[in-house]
Structures are given as structure tokens and as C-alpha cells.
């Protein structure tokens, strides 16, 4: 593919992208397609990413070189990879959204991929080999697939991974998560308490956003102190105890970062657990019994 053609495709993709990101708010009120159901936090991610990627795209425009073809900004390896015929590969980013024909497993990724967007495909399973060599990954978005199984080793080698979305899949259990994560989204799955160990997040000391809404959890896992936003609404949580958010042996403890908890849509009666929330700077938002 010539550089110009590639530039044209990029322009097209990004134009759609911009209209998607900026249209999210409006579309929520009109007809609903699956993209409209995009959680707000996802839209923010995409916007932030756009900003980051615009810089790269612009370079691609400006640097459009006189046609001595080997000077493409995409290296030879990448051009040969079938993934980049189905998906859009930019330096460091791979966009595979609603790929046709159906994509049922994680595609082979170019070396040094940092951002993977593979939303709204039909991926069913993530194996330990899928991301094995791509230790450069910083963000993986697998929203809206059919994932019901993830091998425990799938993400452990990804020591740079900061953002992971597995939202709108069919998971009943979570794999081991890498410790540098700052944002984890597993909204709209079938997660059970048995599949989310109490200490699943304990070691993730950089975690800021944790989304576990619309699952079947019956207990709140240990929430690291770094967490700022916790969404765990619409689960089956019927009790909380003092140690869920606070420290039972330290009545002066104030949880430092947490400023948004959603627990609505659970059978828990918050008024029965007044001591469980005294260490929070703001109470859970939403409606409660
Ligand atoms: C491409 O152009 C650059 C600078 O104009 C030159 O240094 C390089 O050798 C050229 N490459 C080929 C394959 O002709
Ligand atoms: C919700 O949790 C209760 C136990 O607290 C259990 O008896 C019930 O079956 C659960 N409901 C669902 C839909 O899992
Ligand atoms: C409370 O318990 C934890 C762990 O059990 C301990 O590390 C901490 O020092 C205790 N705090 C106080 C104030 O006793």
C-alpha cells in the first residue's frame, strides 16, 4: 500500500473516530446500537487516546515523503502481517473494530504494539500465547466480544499494561492481572464471587478506576487504597463489613483517594452498616434501599 493511500485510510478512520467520540453524548438519547451503550468512561479513554494519536497521525500527513517507497513510517514486518490487512495498523496502535469476516481470536500483533483496540468482535478465548511476546502493550480494549475464558498467564507478562477493558463479555472469573494497571473494566460480564478472589486487586497499587458493575458478585473484593472510582452497582452484594472500605481497628483512618463509589442495584441495605463508610470522604452515590 502506498503512503498516500494509507494516509487516506487513516484520515477516514480517524474522522469516523472523532464523530463517534464526540457523538456519544448525543446518541445516548437516540436509538441504541451497541456502540451507543459505550460506558462514559470508555468514551473518555478514546478521547484521551485520540489526542495522543493525533500527534502521530499528523506526523504521517506532514512527513508524506516523495515516493521512494521504503521510507514508509510503518516497518516491513507490519506491512506483511495479515492482521494489518483486516485492521488499521499505525505505529504502535492496532485498531480492529467489528472486523468482517468475524474475528474469533486475538489477531497476531506487530512487534512493539502499545495500543490494541479489538472491540465488538467475536473473540471467545484469550490464551497465554496471544499477547506472549508483545510486552510493549500499554492498553488493551476487548469490549463487546464473546470472551468466556482467559488463561491465567494471558496478561502476567505485560508489565507495562495500564488499561485493560474486558467489558461486555461473558466472563465468570478473572485471570491474574498485571500489577501496573491503572484502569480495569469488567462491567457487564457474569462474574461470580468464586471467580474474583478477595485479593484479586490487592497488589495493584496503581489502580485508580475499577469497574465491576452488572455482574453477579456477592462480595466486594479488597479495594487498594489507590482506587479513586469504584463501580460495583447491579451485582448481588448483600453485606459489607467495616474492613471493606475502612479499617475496623483504626477509627481515625480516612481512605485517601476514593471519591466515587456506586453500589446501587445491590440488595445491601447501607443504613445497616454505618461504620463501614465512616472513613470515606463521600458516601456511595445512587439510590439505595
Ligand atoms: C529515500 O530518500 C532518502 C532521502 O531523500 C534517501 O536518503 C534514501 O536513500 C532514499 N531511499 C531509497 C530506497 O531510495
Ligand atoms: C444472590 O445472593 C443470594 C445469597 O446472598 C443467593 O441466595 C441468590 O441466589 C443470589 N442471586 C443470584 C441471581 O445469583
Ligand atoms: C490494624 O491491623 C493491621 C493489620 O491487621 C495492622 O497492620 C495495623 O497496624 C493495625 N492498626 C492499628 C491502629 O492497630
Automatic annotation (TrEMBL):
PANTHER family: EPIPHYCAN-RELATED, MIMECAN
Native source species: Electrophorus electricus (Electric eel)
Protein's name according to its UniProt entry: Mimecan
GO cellular component labels: extracellular matrix; extracellular space
SUPFAM superfamilies with a match to the protein in the record: L domain-like
Sections of the chain in a coiled coil: none
PROSITE patterns tied to this protein: LRR
Annotated keywords: Disulfide bond, Extracellular matrix, Glycoprotein, Growth factor, Leucine-rich repeat, Proteoglycan, Repeat, Secreted, Signal
GO molecular function: growth factor activity
Family listed: Belongs to the small leucine-rich proteoglycan (SLRP) family. SLRP class III subfamily.
Role summary: Induces bone formation in conjunction with TGF-beta-1 or TGF-beta-2.
A GO BP annotation: bone development
Native organism taxonomy: Eukaryota, Metazoa, Chordata, Craniata, Vertebrata
One of the Pfam families matching this protein, by short name: LRR_8
Signal peptide: 1-23
Predominant cellular place of this UniProt entry's protein: secreted
Subcellular location: Secreted, Extracellular space, Extracellular matrix
Amino acid at each position: 500500500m502506498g503512503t498516500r493511500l494509507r494516509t487516506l485510510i487513516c484520515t477516514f478512520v480517524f474522522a469516523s473516530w472523532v464523530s463517534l467520540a464526540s457523538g456519544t453524548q448525543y446518541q445516548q438519547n437516540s436509538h441504541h446500537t451497541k456502540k451507543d451503550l459505550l460506558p462514559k468512561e470508555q468514551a473518555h479513554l478514546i478521547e484521551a487516546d485520540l489526542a495522543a494519536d493525533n500527534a502521530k497521525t499528523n506526523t504521517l500527513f506532514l512527513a508524506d515523503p516523495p515516493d521512494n517507497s521504503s521510507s514508509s513510517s510503518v516497518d516491513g514486518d507490519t506491512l506483511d502481517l495479515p492482521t494489518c490487512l483486516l485492521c488499521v495498523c499505525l505505529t504502535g496502535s492496532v485498531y480492529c473494530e467489528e472486523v468482517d469476516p468475524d474475528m474469533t481470536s486475538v489477531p497476531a500483533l506487530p512487534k512493539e504494539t502499545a495500543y490494541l483496540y479489538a472491540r465488538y468482535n467475536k473473540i471467545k478465548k484469550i490464551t497465554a500465547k496471544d499477547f506472549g511476546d508483545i510486552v510493549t502493550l500499554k492498553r488493551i480494549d476487548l469490549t463487546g466480544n464473546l470472551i468466556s475464558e482467559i488463561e491465567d498467564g494471558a496478561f502476567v507478562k505485560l508489565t507495562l499494561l495500564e488499561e485493560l477493558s474486558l467489558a461486555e463479555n461473558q466472563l465468570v472469573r478473572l485471570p491474574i492481572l498485571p500489577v501496573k494497571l491503572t484502569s480495569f473494566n469488567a462491567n457487564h460480564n457474569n462474574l461470580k464471587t468464586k471467580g474474583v478472589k478477595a485479593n484479586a486487586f490487592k497488589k495493584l497499587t496503581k489502580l485508580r478506576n475499577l469497574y465491576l458493575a452488572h455482574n453477579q458478585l456477592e462480595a466486594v473484593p479488597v479495594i487498594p487504597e489507590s482506587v479513586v472510582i469504584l463501580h460495583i452497582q447491579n451485582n448481588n452484594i448483600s453485606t459489607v463489613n467495616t474492613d471493606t472500605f475502612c479499617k475496623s481497628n483504626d477509627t481515625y483512618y480516612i481512605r485517601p483517594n476514593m471519591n466515587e463509589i456506586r453500589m446501587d442495584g445491590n440488595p445491601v441495605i447501607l443504613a445497616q452498616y454505618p461504620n463501614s463508610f465512616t472513613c470515606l470522604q463521600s458516601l456511595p452515590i445512587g439510590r439505595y434501599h
